[in-house]
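Lecture 7 notes: from sequence to structure.

We start with a single chain of 101 residues. Read the sequence below before looking at the structure.
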Amino acid sequence: MDRSAVITLVSETYSQNARGSIIATENTKQVYCQVDSVTATEFFEGGRNGLNPELRFTLFSYDYEGEKIIEYLGDRFTVYRVYKGRNDTLELYAERRQGDA
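Now the structure, written as tokens:
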């Protein structure tokens, strides 16, 4: 398996400032993975459920800590499904984030 692509996993933490407003802070980390298109079945099944499946990212399970945002080639994607693969890998299925160009 070719894991030469680099993605950025983004997690968000929330805190309250002095005025009582909730502030989101992004934490990022880069990991190596394999990037593939989703299968036709995944695409059509996702479409039936209101999703727009686009890419599948395969990475080592110890690199993933539940992040819901992926940055890849300047675009942001939302993880909508995680599948446990073989040999300590995870497959993250993602769609382009709404409102992100």
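Strands lie at 5-16, 22-37, 53-60, 69-72, 75-84, 89-96. Keep this in mind for problem set 3.
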